[in-house]
Amino acid sequence: MNFTAVLAQIKPKLGCINENLALIEERIQSAKQSGADLVVFPELALTGYFLKDLVPEVALRLDSPEIGRLTELSLDISIAIGFVEVTDDYRFFNSSIYLENGTVKHLHRKVYLPTYGLFDEQRYMARGERFRAFDTKFGRMGMLICEDMWHLSASYILAMDGATTLLCLSSSPGRGISGDSLGSAVAWQQLTSTTAMFLNCRVLYCNRVGYEDGVNFWGGSEYIAPSGESAVRGKILEEDCVTAILDEGSLRRERIFSPMLRDENLFITLQELRRIEQERGR
User: Fold this and answer.
1) Residues 13-29: pLDDT tens digits?
2) CA distance 134 to 76
3) In this structure, what CATH number is given to the domain that contains residue 239?
4) How confident is the model at residue 105 (pLDDT cuts 50, 70, 90)?
């Protein structure tokens, strides 16, 4: 079905859950008033990104009042948002949830935690262990958190699990220069375009803005059509609300015109991966 999504390119404050929740609720109400069906927030929107030793202080259980409030708000509009999750055994995850009709429809825990350059996530967080597509009122979707998308197998698994729309929640810092643009912005734009084109899927990419510890997040949230073309893109280095209209017709046309996913042979893929696993084991 056709639906409208808003990518809420916000500037969360580091470690300030109450202030961030107020900002998030404001953006949700604004998206509802504009007639949107879905609002997507960035990775760790409730907490900020470079948390380090603050992780245990800001972590939330799924039954926390804050998550409960967001779940309540999802009665009128679907919501995808990132936060730090704590489990009963006191493990902490960089998680995202998809809320719809007053329920948690899906929970994704970030699998690939970067530990290079500016990043040191694995020191503070536990790794997720799965990628699963899930059903929504807008069709089958998959969720990725930032670094997850840089591993080709992650998007591939979700597409083979039936996802026609990929949601990528991101906190990508601005790094490098590529001509007149940020190197990280160009790299992400190439990645999302290629992913959408080769998997015949739609990509909703939501990235944050603002500074933390002298590091700047660049924004540039966008909707990439199944053809790989950027349909709409947010501002660079500024807060923004990006409205994307996703129509079923473009997805249908692209899958008829370029049926790569239809012709994908999962049997061969699994067969060769098992062979590689066995050879490496020997």
Assistant:
1) 999 999 999 999 999 99
2) 20
3) 3.60.110.10
4) very high
